[in-house]
């Protein structure tokens, strides 16, 4: 496809945290040759092959950004391993097979740094996806996601399809899932801090607070996703992450949230709860070599924005 050809870019999971970030960024680009379709689950259940086909027939996309997945934090992953595996395998199988059937020019799917081996050397890079078992806490999700990379290679070898994938680290931002038990750590702690303030209580954080994570703001990630769709030509995945030096502990994240919300109570660490993987430090070396002007919104500012969004949208957001 040349630069002036019209593209219909369909985003599965377009109503979620990452999808909404991409929608905001895509609007700001205002490109006349691109039309965007942002799917939500009420458009059709992607676990169902016929429903998936119906969606592809209806929108006739040329390009697909595949985000739709069963997604959750550590505690949800530990509790629902069967569902994380089966639902994600079904969604990915249906979406990628329809991308083949409907001759999609390019599909970019979303993996996660959770899928890397637990026992590894650091920093982790893109060549290590299949080097050993993932952390046991999320093996349902991790193995289902790893199979996308296997399918991307197989579809290319057998059918010449151009399917690739990106590997973001932990993501946060507006439109996140703020559920108290099933969400990721940042939205979970934003919601808990809000309730602690409302009820004049201390804030309880699960685990020791010592694990380390690299967090990426959904609006920074959106820019990188669109860059990958436009410019990333390899089949093998690329890590989309802040630098190794930006890794931060869960305790420090909790302090940033408390500061952003002006929470004055105590922070208590419940060490009877799981810590999950201690760290999964990822290298963004490959990304930097292809995208030299890489910059990120500072986490302190982006956490402030995420807290503000949650408070302003408290009545309607997912929680
Ligand atoms: P999210 O906010 O939970 O959004 C999930 C999206 O998938 C929603 O649009 C949801 O639709 C859709 N969906 C779920 N099941 C579906 C089904 N059976 N049929 C159709 N649509 C379905 O998740 P997210 O955080 O944006 O995640 C997007 C991608 O990033 C996922 O592939 C995830 O694995 C990956 N990722 C996330 C993180 C993170 O920290 N959040 C980190 C690394 C990678 P409805 O809202 O309409 O239900
Ligand atoms: P992970 O990176 O896949 O492990 O995803 P999470 O976003 O679920 O982060 C998990 C880390 O945050 C673990 O060390 C948890 O012990 C810690 N944590 C602290 N409080 C919470 C919380 O309220 N929800 C979640 N999901 N994790 C929490």
Automatic annotation (TrEMBL):
Keywords recorded for this protein, A-Z: Isomerase, NADP, Oxidoreductase
UniProt key word Transcription: no
Superkingdom: Eukaryota
Molecular function GO labels: GDP-L-fucose synthase activity; isomerase activity
InterPro entries found in the cross-reference section: Epimerase_deHydtase, GDP_fucose/colitose_synth, NAD(P)-bd_dom_sf
The protein's Enzyme Commission number: 1.1.1.271
Family the UniProt entry places it in: Belongs to the NAD(P)-dependent epimerase/dehydratase family. Fucose synthase subfamily.
Name of the featured protein: GDP-L-fucose synthase
Native source organism of the sequence: Dictyostelium purpureum
């Amino acid at each position: 496809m040349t630069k002036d050809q019209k593209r219909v870019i369909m985003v599965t999971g377009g109503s979620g945290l990452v999808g909404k970030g991409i929608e905001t960024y895509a609007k700001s680009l205002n490109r006349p040759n691109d039309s965007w379709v942002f799917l939500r689950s009420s458009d059709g259940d992607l676990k169902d092959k016929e429903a998936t086909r119906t969606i592809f027939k209806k929108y006739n996309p040329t390009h697909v950004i595949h985000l739709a997945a069963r997604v959750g934090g550590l505690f949800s992953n530990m509790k629902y391993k069967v569902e994380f595996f089966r639902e994600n395998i079904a969604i990915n199988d249906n979406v990628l097979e329809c991308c083949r059937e409907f001759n999609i020019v390019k599909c970019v799917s979303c993996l996660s740094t959770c899928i890397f081996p637990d026992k590894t050397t650091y920093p982790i890079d893109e060549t290590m996806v299949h080097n050993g078992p993932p952390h046991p806490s999320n093996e349902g999700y991790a193995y289902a996601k790893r199979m996308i990379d296997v399918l991307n290679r197989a579809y290319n070898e057998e059918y010449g399809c151009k399917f690739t994938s990106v590997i973001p680290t932990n993501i946060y931002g507006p439109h996140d899932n703020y559920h108290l038990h099933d969400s990721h750590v940042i939205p979970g702690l934003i919601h808990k801090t809000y309730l602690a303030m409302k009820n004049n209580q201390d804030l309880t954080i699960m685990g020791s607070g010592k694990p380390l994570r690299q967090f990426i703001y959904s609006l920074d990630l959106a820019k990188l996703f669109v860059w990958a769709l436009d410019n990333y030509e390899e089949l093998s995945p690329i890590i989309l992450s802040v630098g190794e030096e930006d890794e931060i502990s869960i305790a420090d994240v909790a302090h940033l949230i408390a500061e952003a919300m002006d929470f004055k109570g105590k922070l208590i660490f419940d060490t009877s709860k799981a810590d999950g993987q201690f760290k999964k430090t990822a290298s963004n070396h490959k990304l930097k070599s292809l995208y030299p002007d890489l910059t990120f919104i500072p986490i302190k500012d982006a956490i402030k924005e995420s807290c503000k969004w949650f408070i302003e949208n408290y009545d309607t957001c997912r929680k």
